[in-house]
Amino acid sequence: MSSDELDTMARLYEAHADAVHAYALRRSDRETADEVTARVFLVAWRRRASVPTEPLPWLYGVARKVLAEERRGAARRGALRERISSFDARRPAELPDISDVELAAALGRLSSRDRETLLLRYWEELSPEQVAVALGCSRATLAVRLHRARGRLRHALANGERTDDTCAAGAES
Fold first, then answer.
1. How many helices (H) does the chain have, and how many strands (E)?
2. What domains can be seen in the chain, in order of their start residue?
3. For the segment 145-159, what is each residue's pLDDT rounded down to a tens digit?
């Protein structure tokens, strides 16, 4: 990238970042508006050759799409939270009311295998058979993994602690 391109992008940001942020802030909270603004200018950077001469309307269009993605993501997280709360009907107490941040943090404390198992099943809404195929394990192995991963997620949500996967890797079939 040439220094002229860098200067052009810097001028674009300086000229329009406040307007894009204000646009996003009128439609979301401050944290989301910050994220949207960053993503809009990342798109502008990646598509710098196609940024029009009059960039602000185009930037608003990108911001509108990014905000829509954020809303879809929030809806998916809400649906995931609902599915997670119904993991185990035998459990006497429901999951506490958790925020998206708490859920993301708890998922982040899980092992990558537990996290992927839960996300494929409950975020991507794959059937257990499809998850088993995606993970390359038997349906029976998946049932055990799901059971353990749900328990570790409940523990991570309740305690805010890292929950390492202690299963032997050889348990796969």
1. 7, 0
2. 3-82 (1.10.1740), 93-165 (1.10.10.10)
3. 999 999 999 888 888
